Amino acid sequence: MAALARALPTPLHNPMPEYEDVLPSSSSSSSALPVGPQIPKYGSRKGWKPKTALDFNGGGAYPECHIAQYPLDMGRKKTGTGTTLALQVDQDGLVRYDAIAQHGRAAGSKVQSSFKDLVPLANRTDVSESEREMERPDASSINDTAERTRLALERITHGKIKAAQPKHVPKTNNDATYIRYTPANQGSGEGKQRIIKMTEVQEDPLEPARFKHKKIPRGPAEPPPPVLQSPPRPATAQDQKDWMIPPCISNWKNNKGYTVPLDKRLAADGRGLQDVHINDNFAKFSEALYVADRHAREEVRARAQMQQLLAQKEKAQKEENLRLLAQKAREERSGITSSAPSAGATAPPKELGMGLGGYDSASEDESDADEGSEEEEDEEAIREREQVRNEKRKEREKEMRMSNMGSEMRTKMLAREANRDISEKIALGLAKPTAAKETLLDSRLFNRESLSTGFASEDSYNLYDKPLFQGSSAAAAIYKSAGSGKGNDESYGGGTEEGIRNELEKDRFNLGKATKGFEGADSSEAREGPVQFEKDTIIALDGTSDPFGVESFMNAAKKGGKRVNEDRDEERRKRARDD
């Protein structure tokens, strides 16, 4: 055996592991050593974790091991290969970014991802001479490559030919069939056995069908099974009402233009099919709003009453002070001086406090202070009385001037005051508002006729229903001379005829002298009122008013052909005359 072992060559692969321990005796060699991991016995597997497939020994999971177990890889989620690239470096320690370009390609493919790949091999310094010499393929590899190429091209060609051929062509059996025929009449001379060749007759594919196929009508079906039901009975009115389904009526479209009653439309709407439940919070909210509004109104009313009461007290206090001042002034003017003025005459009522303009006379110190300020109050009262006297005097002088004024000046002044804006009247003190409610309405609008619906006739172009200054008095007051006052002599050239003529001839505005005046302006007369203008009216041929000249335009359009002929005749006459 030792000689045989030495004669045999050394094995390339050693499937059995080499054990350092050598079995001492042959008796121990008979006992097989356990191969693979040692699996603990049942009951002593606490803390043991089966991880590999060898731990299960081809069996199932261990129920006493409370971990995730995958015997024979059952239940394990298969995770695909990831697309994340590992960081690679070259021999110089630099990161290889060209791995991104080579990712996903075949194993034998080469990607030119650097600059040196573009340099020819003859010019590269990092390539040796042996690497530059490319080995040529041998004849066998060339033949194999050519054969594979030919087969691939034939496969492509046959595929295209089959795709172009029809697929549903019926197959015809053109093979001949040979039949041995033995005639039945053996007595005659023709009763010899012979072989007959049977072939199918060639048919024209474009020949129409010789026979017409006709569908056979379907036979009668089986009778339906009998249905046991109650005899029919007529429907009552209640049944018809219950079975009545309202038609579908759209709330948006009515293409046919039907007139649907309101009750039918509401019935089709389906509003009565469900009960309407209103939340109680709506009533609570409305009640809360009503209570809040009532409280607010009560507070506003109480505040208004308090303000009115305070105003009345303040007014009464002012009147009492003015009465006392007037009484004191009358006594001083008449020379009657009271040695000891009464407490009621010098002091305001006790119920009025300091906030209302009164003085509290509860203490003697305050009464002494009031007596010390009497002189200042007297001077102020004197100034107020003088101011009132001046205003009264001015009003009397104004009334006297108006009474002595002529009718024309009075009319002018009344018109000026009537046309004043309310803001001007308030600024000048002419507005006299009263507390009466009737003055809130303009009395000038009373007894006035309202405008009609059409306002005016259809052929009228008036913008106003009446003149601006209606009445001779207003017009005369505006346009008539004011009399022989001081300013009239200057404005009218001294009032003489020569002065007036000179003033009219002056070119005050540097406009130059007009070459032609207005028609009818030479024989002018003195005017008593404003200038009256006449409306420029266009009269049609039928005598009606034509403000826009429509009738004349239509007549000219109708006569257009005749006018063209007249123009041609006139042009012909001119040419003949020139010749």
TrEMBL record:
The keyword Nucleus applies. Residues 335-349 have a biased composition (Low complexity). Residues 220-234 have a biased composition (Pro residues). Residues 1-48, 213-239, 329-411, 545-579 are annotated as: Disordered. Residues 382-401, 563-579 have a biased composition (Basic and acidic residues). InterPro entries: SKI-int_prot_SKIP (IPR017862), SKI-int_prot_SKIP_SNW-dom (IPR004015). Residues 177-333 form the SKI-interacting protein SKIP SNW domain. This is Pre-mRNA-processing protein 45. It comes from Kwoniella europaea PYCC6329. The lineage of its organism: Eukaryota, Fungi, Dikarya, Basidiomycota, Agaricomycotina.
